[in-house]
Amino acid sequence: MGSAFVRVDDATDTVMAFGVVSENGLECDSNEHAFHCWIETSEHIVDFTAPVYSSYMERWPKEAQIDIPRKMFIKSKTNMALSHTDLRTEGDFYMQPNLALAQQLLQNALKSSAVGDLIVACQQWFVKPPKKMPTSLTLMNDLGAIIDVQLTKTRIIGAW
């Protein structure tokens, strides 16, 4: 968890930004209200939300919204920009982990019954290939109402 920046469109110079940027634009940080999550290995960074970046645009003013293609994000750490201000071409990225924030948010999440429900849902939904994943899953919300969650097909058209 931390701040994350991905240049998603060269034509409009659009950078998807998750975090807090200082007034002068030179520093970035993250907090419990402005952060992003990704998977990091010793060599790669994976962002499972990349195919739905376009849905984040719904919060932006209509005139600022652009259509962001559904692409996967699996990048070598060696290709990361040196700073959030150094994103020159589409697909450039910068991630700044915030380990203290991650620890705080994970501790808070573990106290929530919703996280346990999410873990159970993931266990029920996951099947080993070549078996087919179920197309829906029934969950109960915090008010006791039954919710039918549908698996939607998201077609990936490339990679960042």
Overall description:
It is a single chain. The protein is of the alpha+beta class and 160 residues long. It folds into 2 domains: 2-107, Atu2299-like (Roll), CATH 3.10.550.10; 112-159, no CATH class. 18% of the residues lie in helices and 28% in strands. It is built from 3 helices and 12 strands; from the N terminus they run ββββββαβββααβββ. The chain has helices spanning 53-56, 99-110, 113-125; strands spanning 2-9, 14-18, 20-21, 28-29, 39-40, 44-46, 71-72, 74-76, 93-97, 136-140, 146-150, 158-159. A hairpin with a 5-residue loop joins strand 10 and strand 11. It is globular. The mean pLDDT is 91.
**Total tally of structural domains:** 2
Number of helices: 3
CATH class of the largest domain: Alpha Beta
Mean pLDDT: 91
Give the total of beta strands. 12
Low-confidence stretches: none
Rounded to an integer in angstroms, the radius of gyration calculated over CA atoms is 18 Å
Q: Beta fraction of the residues?
A: 25-35%
Strands across the major sheet, in which order? Answer: 2-1-9
Q: Structural class, judged by helices and strands?
A: alpha+beta
Mass-distribution shape: globular
What is the share of helical residues? 10-25%
**Any idea what the CATH superfamily of the largest domain is called?**
Hypothetical protein Atu2299
- Helix/strand order, N-terminal first: EEEEEEHEEEHHEEE
